Batch of 2 targets.
Target 1
Amino acid sequence: MRDGTPLTGDFGQRLRHLRTRAGLSQEALSHAAGVSVRALADMERGRTRGPQRRTVQVLAEALGLDDAEAADLEKSAAVGRPRPRTADGPATPGTLALPRDIKDFTARGPALAGLLELARDTGPDRPGVSVVAGQPGLGKTAFAVHAAHRLAPHFPDGQFALDLHGMDPEPTTPRDALARLLGALGIADAAIPAGTDDRAGLWRSMTGDRRMLLLLDNAVDESQVGPLLPGAGPALTIVTSRHSLAGLESVHRTDLALLRREEAVELLTRIIGPERVRAEAQAARDLADLCGHLPLAVRIAGQRLLSRPHERLSKLVARLAAEGRRLDGLQAGSLRVRAAFALSYRQLPTDARTFLRRAALAAGADFSPETGALLAGLSYDDAVACAEELTDAGLLQSDAGAERYRFHDLLRLYAAEQVAIEDGPEIRDAALDRTTRWMLRRATAAALHFDVEHEGSPPGGAYDGDPDPDGAPAGREEARAWLEAERAQWLAALRRAHDTGRHQQVLDAAQAMHWFSDLNQHWEQWVEVFQRSADSARLLGSRRDEAIHLNYLAWSYNMCVHDPHNALTSADAALAAARDCGDGLQEGWALGYGAGALHRQGLVPQAQARLRAGADCLASQKSAQARLAELTILNSLGTLLRQAGQPVEALETHRRSERICRAGIPGRTDELIALYHAVARQQIGNDLAALERWSEAEPPLRQALAAFETAQMPAWAGPARLDLGHVLSAMGHPEARATLLAARDDLTGLRSPRQAEAAAALSALDGATAAR
């Protein structure tokens, strides 16, 4: 005996004596050994008679036992362990043992903490089940194995791991899985019942009082997993699957996300060593990005570099940067990203496979079921069903707030490969053409909700309405939402229509977008839209359409990307086209847009001359369109006069604009005239401010701001708010700071050049306030 501790005997008595001798409470020993208090209590009460060797080792270390005492404690534990036997004798030790842990396992701290909390909460009537699901390559199995090793001390009655082969053509049946699990518990083959239900019943009875951990890896569905779950007792089951297993009730779900960039670099560092990563830090970050922060891809890249100790990281980065070679580069030995994706892809039904690969043709970061349906040639309802099935299978990610879906970058590359392999160029082009026609018709119909001149149809052309009137956006709000959500898709459709010679469709869409573009001046893609439409007009041989769309292009260069040089080039080309075809309206517009470009280049006299010429040209025209253009030119001329130090003449010019608005324009709505009037009121306010008539300037600026906000025109409301903020600041008005702050935020969001002006005005106001 040592200190009264018997050399043999009950493990629980020995453990309690050693803990008391060490002066430790159960809580203290639990903390030191990493074994739960409940597990310790079960051991000391004799409920758990034979904990696993690893559990005994951590307890011996926490108790400070010497080698001989630790060996004695292990012997007493071994006595209480079950001795598995088959019909022919002892079973092979280690049956269904946990796979080897990965030493370089990285990140996943919150997910591990969640499982640890679940393990602590298990009890006789609370068996725990956690489902680890997600897309291929997230490292679900690696995480589950690592977690199982970390949790092992909490489950002294054993840890078992079983691969259910969910990705194989013939996954493990519940009946066969139960036979293996019962055998691991020591049930002889002859004693295992024949039927699945009887085997499940025996399994539940055998596990009912065991504090054990069960890892079911690679499950295919709920029907495979359900019979294997312990019915009661303090067991914990971790299930991994590429499917969500949404039908399993009362389970904890462990959601593994992609690694953050720094975590991906950390994993790479643990695989190849810190020296190589430090030597090429930026290349390591680029490599993580090219791997899409997918753990499997990062591991493959790391293993490849590990096997080539003299290869530079930048060399692999250069290879992976070529999308067509990226999946080829992400393989190391038997580890292949493409193979991981292929396992899931091959299991999909035909429609789901078609939907997945064709969805890779969609433009933009995400896509709608509508787009997927068009590309796959499916009905909308079937497309939604496919998208949901693919989300459950971890092959698509769904948006949290909208019915939209996205790929992981590498999976999109794989899906695009399948288009080339299974569909070929003819089917691919047919899918893209079908989608292009539909998208441009819908985009044109949606944009026409904002067209105040043509009441639902563009002038001329061959536009034949929305392709699905019953499902079309109703009203401006729905139209705006659709155009914003599908921006990448309809722009891609416009490109394809242009490149494949459908120039009239390009013109119709761009013409319909004209008024909508005014509401979204901060969208830089308007340059491409109108560049393509101007080119389509030229290819169709219409000088008038070419003048119209070159004017739109000049506007987009001026207002959207702030490029006055290209704006002037486009305006001059529009002016030449307008004069060739004798279109005075487009001539006036071209003079106005050219003036704006000259002004932005600091050529004020030349800009004033063009504006005066444009106003004279338009004044001689009788159409309602000419009156609207004249208002725009007059407002621009007045603004230029004020900025040139001629505020009195500027005020007179803007008053002239206001008189036209008040007189009304036949054939134009009050709503439209109100917007032009708001612009005139804004400029009148600025003219009065330039004359330091502050109190007179405030009302027209407030009126203009209110009108722009009512019309939901942020690109116009932001500058108007800044103008009002300047006036309020000069007046010492209590709203000045809040107004300038809001203006700065608005203009920053719009990427407006005036954001610096707003920041400076805010800073000056704060400085003046502090100096008082």
Target 2
Amino acid sequence: MNERGSWHLRAGTVVAAWFAALVVVSVAHRWVPQSGWLLVHLLGLGAGSNAILIWSGHFTDALLRRPAGGTRRADTARLIVFNSGAVAVIAGMLTGWWPAAVAGGCVVAGVAGWHGTTLLQRLRAALPSRFGHTVRYYIAAASMLPIGAGIGIAMANVGLPSELHERLVLAHSAVNVLGWVGLTVLGTLVTLWPTMLRTRMAARVETAARRGLPALLLGLTVGVVGAIAGIPLVTATGALGYLAAAAYVLEPHLDEIRRKHPADFATLSVLAGIMWLLGSLTYLTVGLATASTPLEATETAGSVTAALLAGFLVQVLLGALTYLVPVVIGGRAAVQGAITELERGAPWRLSIANAGLLVCVLPVPSLVRVACSVLVLVAFASFLPLAVRAVLVARRLRGMPSKPGRPEPVPARRRIRAAAAGVGVVVFAAAAGIAADPAAVGISTADTGNVTASGHTTEVEVRIEGMRFVPDVLDVPIGDRLVVTLVNTGTDRHDLVLANGARTGRIDPDETATLDVGLVGGQVDGWCSVAGHRQMGMTLTVQPTGAVDDRVHTEHRPDAQAVSLNSSDVSRSLGAHPDAGFVAHDPVAPATSADHRITLAATDEQREVAPGITQRLWTFGGTAPGPTLRGKVGDIFEVTLVNDGTIGHSIDFHAGSLSPDEPMRTIEPGESLVYRFTATRAGMWMYHCSTMPMSLHIANGMFGAVIIDPPDLPPVDREYVMVQSELYLGPEGGEADADKVVADNPDLVVFNGYANQYDHDPLVAEVGERIRIWVLAAGPNRGSAFHIVGGQFDTVWSEGDYRLQPGTGGSQTLGLFPAQGGFVELEFPEPGHYPFVSHSMVDAERGAHGIVEVR
């Protein structure tokens, strides 16, 4: 073993020591203060940073073709000083002694600056090098760590305002992970990746690396400035720029992969790390773009910490060390022996690490995450004993003869089987986590209060029949444990929620769920939590038998919503103006189409329904009302309903005549159905969700219109569509208040989904033009008396027939019951502003009001 290799192995023990500390803290993190922060810094500041200091110097010497022996003393000194600073930072944070953290941070920043300056001096002193741009990546990365350390020092101040602290957390993470670590990795891969694959470098790798560095720095700068300024969209722009630049730098390496597929642990681990980097950056960019506050942006960044550090940094680090340790050992037999040891269990280590990490970043129950994180830790930690064994084997084999070439690779079939077994272990661990914590999937244990356990269990079967629990009163002796078997004999999905917090998951028809309610010490109410089902009578009561002093309180209900908006909120809204840039729902009637193959997605959408009032609507096609469809008698409509919402939905087209059994059935989230009908009769038809309670689904936005033109419908100058509906406001940003729907007490009555919107963005017409206005009363509960102030209708068509045609007579209103539709025609005699309303005046005053501006 040469001097250079000997120094790298000795220095590498520092990396191993930090990694070992990481493993220990991971195992004992529940008993370690600030364990989350500590784990991140043991990996990033400890193991990762030491590896960067060691190997970026090594690659700089190798790429610039300069001897390294004379620099070892300085390199060793840097490592000693750096690690003293890192230890001081960690000790200061764990003890809460800010001066120690500040001093340690200053030392870390100083060593990073020292390291970057040294690399710059070496670059300037060397002859022009083909790979000098790689060294520039290292220099740029070294300039990032002092900035990140400075931000970290500021964050260590407990007196820092919380909002500023959240901004600095995001900036600190970006500078250190994407700057210090990310730039180093991307620069190193320029030469290391084709070397690891043992193939020639792709043609565009050097050009992409040279051009990509400024773009990476620009994206990182924009992102950090946006984070500090507290502007998530700017931060997202920077993240997107960094992602695009990273993809540009990495893309030429695909040619190398096509020529020589990664097949060993070193190359596959590095490749997996890069995939986690790109995936995490993509998720981060989207999350930052949709964040509305700096706190949300910081939370988004925190959610990808595990993916970036464990998925990216650890896997790249372990993959690179798996390749580099044998290289620096030297000696053919020693190298082969070290490689054989480091490759042991490679397929299952990789599959367990990546499958486990994937589960950990998903929204899974805590025990599932714990079980899978343990497997990931074992897969990563196995590198340490393998590395020790590799060094020992290499020393034993040093100087011994060996066969030329590398050890024979493991057959592909064996690797695949081992990888599949690793994935199976992760799946089993996840299943075990769910089995050990049923509450995580919706089965809770009730609060027993102060009741004395009787030692008995009462088991009751409750059936779901239609919209009822049968029985709906459960008599249970006080102190008994209650176990409910819920059997869904209905046609829709339901669940059972109890006021003490116990609940089942939602179950489909013909499914059964078991709920351990716990000890019964007092009356407990139960209900189905699917929207509106409780109001339709899906309730039950657990009734204790016998006297008891301490009862289970039912005041707290886990599904209780915020207070619904009231009349004062509505009055203020109706007197307000929409925000600048408001655009009304397009009232122009669509042209008659010949192609009626349509896909309608049922989605949950946050929509403003009046100035300053937002509701979470259930929609067809993203709007309420849904898109207006139009055709002629004899046309065939084929509508594909896709449920992208959160609860079951269905659709009922009044424009078709057919058995409702199949096409109008409720489909659950993720399902779809095709609804095909022939328009045999003309009309202004309604379509709507028919899932029970139908009134709530319509009230919350699931309705629209289908126009089937009467034969020989004459042309007009302008056509508009007005769909009138009611809004029963729930809490701000919430869904419709089912109790208000049942009481028929609407807060707003609107045209095309928004109160008074055509007061602010009027319909337009010109004097003498012939205007046709289609009107549908979508309800769910109220009809319409459509009237235009100052106008007289000379044509009225309602429910498939003309009620009035041009002549001497006229009409003042188009009267419609709920779900009825028609149209009126008129001409305006002179310029002006003509209000249109529902002449049920209380509804007009609730928002069923607009203006036709006649020019």
